[in-house]
Write a structure and sequence with these properties.
This protein is mainly α. The chain contains 2 helices and no strands. Helices cover 93% and strands 0% of the residues.
Length: 107
């Protein structure tokens, strides 16, 4: 009768619930392994990016060094010109005298 029907239904629900829990656990496991895969893929991708960027970093560093050297050369050149201009204000003779003194002596 009614009681056995109820018991039957309870048993069915219990079984369904167990199956559901098993399915849930399996989905959980899949999700975990999927996340691990994604994380390792991301890690590989990051490493690859680092490797791909390395030559550019080296190039940029080298360009930076060249630029710094150019700037310091330019500064030096500018200071030399300024000194010459100061000398020029003091008279052309001074510049000629310096040029002659600097010139290699020919005998």
């Amino acid at each position: 009768g009614l009681m056995s029907d109820l018991a039957q239904r309870q048993k069915l629900v219990g079984t369904e619930f167990e199956e559901f829990q098993v399915r849930l656990a399996s989905m959980d496991e899949q999700h975990r392994s999927w996340r691990t895969r994604v994380e390792s893929r991301e890690e590989q991708w990051r490493a690859k990016q680092q490797n791909d960027l390395e030559p550019f970093r080296t190039q940029i560093d080298s360009l930076r060094k060249q630029l710094t050297k150019l700037q310091s050369d330019e500064q030096e050149h500018f200071e030399t010109l300024s000194r010459r201009a100061d000398l020029h204000d003091g008279g052309l003779e001074d510049v000629r005298g310096i040029a002659l003194r600097r010139a290699p002596q020919t005998s």
